[in-house]
Specification:
By secondary structure, the chain is an alpha/beta fold. 39% of the residues lie in helices and 22% in strands.
Length: 296
């Protein structure tokens, strides 16, 4: 990042930051101080170290106006990530827009489980992977970074989401190994037979009736098709598990993220002759977060 803009007049970094924090706190914005910092870093194209080592640096009037416009939008509930256009995942920076779900730290646990299971099965070379409902492409790109010879199919029903995912793959120089296809679940893989070593997904899993329980930022700004999974919230899992059974090879893996309180219901969907070695993994907070199974 640059050292920061040189200006001759305007408010100081310290005062602008203090004012923004106050406005966001008054609007009951979660982590208001962090949000103010990120928005000012974005506006001034600097990092946190520069921000706090130059508290008296002046901000010109144009930058100041842009900053407080962003602060106002954050106070209205627009997520910080959509305002800055980025979010970190798996140590990588991803572009995010309102067309995609914002990558969560909890989803990194999905990648961790995948890596653990592939190592356990002594699989690391020439993998064929499908990422279903890729969104920003964060899972597909993270796996492409970890498994340099893997071939990955990334699907999504949203063309706008796939555009974001393609740009993220290009940014991290893995686009030549990820094929992006617009389709529902694994529809694009029908002609490929049982070709995959691994199918991974973070599908929509919020029950339609639970909308009011979501944070305002999520409920009003993130894409509904990436959030809501039907009346029970598990409807997508039932379809995905059935489709995956036809597309993953013998001893291949299906690994999915699950929502809070859904582990038993989703686990029951795996209780059929097609799947074995069903495991539930908790996240760092001790909440069941990932279910994995092996094809018989």
């Amino acid at each position: 990042m640059s050292a920061g803009p040189k200006t001759d007049a305007g408010a100081s970094v310290r005062n602008a930051l203090r004012e923004a924090m106050g406005r966001l706190e008054a609007a009951n914005v979660p982590s208001h101080a962090l949000a103010a910092e990120l928005l000012l870093m974005h506006t001034m194209r600097c990092d946190r170290t520069w921000l706090y080592s130059h508290p008296e640096a002046a901000i010109d009037s144009e930058a100041l106006q842009k900053f407080f416009e962003l602060v106002a939008r954050r106070a209205q509930g627009v997520p910080t990530q959509y305002l800055t256009g980025k979010q970190e995942f798996w140590g990588l920076e991803f572009e995010v827009t309102p067309a995609v779900l914002i990558p969560r730290p909890e989803t990194e646990h999905l990648v961790e489980v995948v890596m653990e299971m592939l190592r356990e099965n002594k699989q690391a070379e020439k993998l064929r992977i499908a990422d279903v409902g890729t969104g920003s492409g964060c899972i597909a790109v993270a796996l492409a970074q970890e498994f340099r010879s893997a071939e990955i199919l990334a699907t999504d029903i949203s063309r706008a989401a796939l555009d974001v995912a393609r740009r993220n793959a290009e940014r991290h120089r893995v686009s030549e190994r990820i094929r992006f296809v617009e389709c529902d679940l694994l529809g694009a893989a029908a002609e490929e037979g049982r070709a995959f070593d691994l199918i991974v997904s973070n599908p929509p899993y919020v029950a339609n009736g639970d909308e009011s329980r979501l944070q305002k930022e999520v409920r009003e700004h993130e894409p509904r098709e990436a959030l809501f999974g039907g009346p029970e919230g598990t409807e997508v899992y039932a379809r995905l598990i059935a489709e995956a059974a036809k597309r993953v090879r013998h001893e291949g893996l299906l690994v999915v993220e699950i929502g809070y309180g859904a582990s038993e219901r989703v686990r029951e969907l795996f209780n059929c002759v097609e799947w074995k070695d069903i495991r539930v993994a908790d996240d760092l907070a001790g909440i069941p977060r990932v279910i994995s199974a092996k094809r018989t």
